[in-house]
Design brief:
Layout (H helix, E strand, L loop, with lengths): L1 E6 L7 H13 L5 E6 L2 H11 L2 H4 L2 E4 L4 H10 L5 H9 L1 H4 L4 E4 L6 H4 L7 E4 L20 E4 L2 H9 L8 E3 L23 E5 L9 H14 L4 E4 L11 E3 L4 E3 L6 H4 L4 E3 L10 H5 L2 E4 L4 H5 L6 E4 L19 E3 L5 H27 L7 H16 L13
Parallel strand pairs: 1-2, 1-4, 2-3, 4-5, 5-6, 6-7, 8-9, 8-13, 9-12, 13-14, 14-15
Antiparallel strand pairs: 10-11
Amino acid sequence: MRIGFLFNHDQIHQVAHSLPIAIALAKSGFPGEILVATTNDRLAAEVRRLAGECLSSRIQHVQLALSSRSGTIARLLGNILPAAKLLAYRDNLDFFRTLDMLVVAEKTSLLLKSRYGLTNLFMVHTRHGAGDRAIGFDEASAGFDHILCSGDKVRRRLISEAQVDPEKISIVGYPKFDMLRHGARTRRAGAERPVILYNPHCSPHLSSWYRHGREVLEHFRHADSHELIFAPHVMLFERPFVVAIDKLSVQRPGTIDDRYLHGGNIQIDLGSRSSTDMSYTMAADMYLGDASSQVYEFLMHPRPCIFLNSHGIAWRGNPNFAHWQAGEVISSPTELDNALDRAGEMHQSYYRAVQEKLFADSFDLDGRPSSERAAEVITALGDRLRPARRPLAVVRAA
């Protein structure tokens, strides 16, 4: 049995959602081959950091590359489209053909089946996040042979909205939580004032950044009673333009004025490791956001939340915005002062209980490491496949 774990993205935010499963599989004594494939140096470095000694002992690291022609195309289109990510599949078909199973955290990899004919490759989707966005439950999900999900909420929506066969879904918890050294909050060192995390999404039709983000920064520049961590979705400023495919839209995130970069009570992080490893969601006292699934990671420890409805969305009763039940929803930064003043009291009197319910529905945590639960499912799936022995293509190990 030859199992591959693929990381094919511009940023590192998906690595912690499935790499822990590869590590748990290796530590379990899995008798087959475990390969972790990356498509750029940024991903390779994060895999090496998280996997540690497992990478040299039980896990083989494979660095996939683009052809010279694809590299040229990626450089020409990369400022607008994820061309390198899409071209990586075609240019590495020889590698993918050697696998019995491929474990991925995103959906573009389904091109291997739909476009390149690898219909016998058993593909497992780990997802990345436990959020509510509609794109997480579209019909593409049904293209996977098996899905590992975090909890009952995700399973229900996959069945009802994506028409996924219930037999193809396993609830395993949230492997990313296994990467935390401890589950306790990590209060920001030296913070004397309440710390607010502003975490807007990147999608133009959902994010509060394009319409209201600079107003939020300006508000906190003058509100020295709070400290602000501005840590948006890591893809918001990755390219000059942001393109959303679930509801076709294009926006330019622009730049951030120097007066915010040097604000005494504002910290700005547009994509470091701390933006992906839960450092900020564990450190903040309050969450301010819109559509990011990171709010569910924040709810590991219930705290006040405020949501900015910059697009006038009719969100009540809409499952794509179920997380907006976790705090007050405002329509403009002009409402921030009053919302901040009452956030603590409203959290204790009402929202805390709602948050606990939302968290329990989103994450099935039974005390065992989620990555071990997921590794057991993958081992069982591998036993069912019983692949015929075949010659393996030569791949270049990193």
